[in-house]
Amino acid sequence: MTIQELAEGRIDFKGQKTADDIVRVVLITSTFLSFVVGFAFSSLMITMSMFALCTVALSLVVLPPWPMFNHHPVIWLSAQGHSQK
């Protein structure tokens, strides 16, 4: 993967849906687990730290345009046959 491909950030529509599903599941799960662990240790610091680490890890998974998010690229039609006015 080149730097230009990373900067463009191209993913297809199904890849966007997959990334959205991953984000939704991981954020809900990490929120619940962070709360439970923080409550067990009676520490807001542990709760926030655990949630922050989960959020950073999630960002590393879904923010770069990994090839797994571009299995179904959109094929655009050519503009032939249209006159310019």
From TrEMBL:
This is Signal peptidase complex subunit 1. The chain crosses the membrane at residues 22-41, 48-66. Pfam families: SPC12. It is found in: Endoplasmic reticulum membrane. Belongs to the SPCS1 family. One of its GO terms (biological process) is signal peptide processing. It is a multi-pass membrane protein. It comes from the Eukaryota. InterPro entries: Spc1/SPCS1 (IPR009542). One of its GO terms (cellular component) is signal peptidase complex. Keywords: Endoplasmic reticulum, Membrane, Transmembrane, Transmembrane helix. Its main location: endoplasmic reticulum. It comes from Suillus placidus. Component of the signal peptidase complex (SPC) which catalyzes the cleavage of N-terminal signal sequences from nascent proteins as they are translocated into the lumen of the endoplasmic reticulum. Dispensable for SPC enzymatic activity.
